[in-house]
Design a protein that fits this description.
Elements: E1 3-5, H1 8-15, E2 29-32, E3 48-51, H2 61-64, H3 92-96, E4 100-102, H4 109-112, H5 115-128, E5 134-138, H6 142-153, E6 158-162, H7 166-174, E7 179-181, H8 188-194, E8 201-206, H9 212-220, E9 221-229, H10 244-248, E10 252-255, H11 261-272, E11 282-287, H12 291-299, E12 305-309
Parallel strand pairs: 5-6, 5-8, 6-7, 8-9, 9-10, 11-12
Antiparallel strand pairs: 1-2, 1-12, 2-3, 3-4
Helix pairs in contact: 5-6, 5-11, 8-9
The protein binds zinc ion (2 copies).
Length: 310
């Protein structure tokens, strides 16, 4: 391992509020191939790589039904013991199914750690299938800031953001947010409507696990709008929203969970071409021995992205 991003879902796993078991932590890892198992082909010792922790089979009913990240094989293998380790093993399955990407020279290890999170944002936006001229990103953490950039890249003219952390709000402004509202002190639904002649935005991307943000997104979109769930909602949460509005206002909720190799390759290419600024998101670096400090800083949202290095 040369670097591994600390993800919001890692924090949820450490807190015990994540849905999926078993809780392996560290899935935004890049490194150098130290050794190759016998009978494993297509990979060489010494290569700089991004190894995807989960890879679908591509052949089962779920995969063929356009839900590859729900493939029964998808989560059955993982990095062992996880990405926050000096050395980890990548299952033969992942190698054989195209899960290991070589990093071109233009992509350093720090940038490489964004392949997985950017891939997740790409897949989420692809799933939204809405022609958006305006959008709001709820939560300007790393996932929100990647989504914000992708939306701008895809031609969404005005992208607003909602964020409580000052350092993250500032990053959202720098990366092109038309306005950033603080949901603790501002009525962001009213603000979003005011900016769209009372209609509401076309798309809301919920890039946080904070459940009240989902309700805010549902209220901030226009009739016929789409709310994309990208952050994993904390388990056991309750949604404060009148379900009749799903039909009377034709509001759609689209969840998106993880990504496949189609998106990891797109993400790598966007990073290599410099189309998405990932380097500026890294505000903190910690050695493995400082891991607890990284977790507590990320929990307080005092950083944008924290990376762990050996
Ligand atoms: Zn992640
Ligand atoms: Zn499958």
């Amino acid at each position: 391992m040369e670097a591994c991003g600390l993800c919001g879902s890692d924090l949820e796993k450490i807190r015990g509020s994540y849905t999926a078991a078993p809780p392996v932590i560290g899935h935004e890892a890049v490194g150098v191939v130290a050794d190759v198992g016998s009978g494993v082909s297509g990979i060489r010792r010494g290569s700089r790589v991004f190894p995807h922790h989960h890879v679908p089979c591509g052949e089962c009913a779920t995969c063929r039904g356009e839900s590859p990240t729900m493939c029964p094989d998808y989560r059955s293998t993982n990095l062992e013991p996880g990405g926050f380790a000096e050395f980890f093993r990548v299952p033969r399955w992942n190698v054989a199914h195209g899960g290991v990407l070589r990093l071109p020279p233009a992509v350093d290890f720090e940038r490489g750690t964004f392949i997985e999170p950017l891939a997740c944002a790409i897949r989420a936006l692809d799933r939204a299938r809405v022609r958006a001229r305006s959008a709001i990103v709820l939560g300007a953490g790393p996932m929100g800031l990647l989504s914000l950039q992708l939306l701008r890249l895809r031609g969404v003219r005005r992208v607003f953001a909602s964020e409580v952390s000052p350092v993250r709000s500032k990053a959202a402004r720098t990366l092109g947010a038309a306005a950033v509202w603080n949901p603790k002190s501002e009525d962001l639904v009213a603000a979003a409507k005011k900016e769209t002649r009372g209609a509401g935005v076309d798309l809301a991307v919920v890039a946080t696990g904070h459940v009240p943000a989902i309700a805010q997104g549902l209220r901030a979109v226009r009739a016929g709008g789409v709310v994309l769930l990208l952050g994993v909602p904390e388990i056991g949460g309750h949604l404060d929203f009148d379900p009749s509005e799903f039909v009377t206002r034709e509001v759609s909720v689209i969840p998106s969970n993880a990504a496949t190799e189609s998106e990891t390759r797109q993400a790598l290419s966007l990073i290599a071409l410099g189309k998405v600024d990932v380097a500026s998101l890294v505000t903190h670096r910690f050695h493995l021995a400082e891991f607890p400090r990284a977790v507590s800083m990320a929990e307080r949202a005092e950083c944008v992205k924290a990376l762990i290095t050996p």
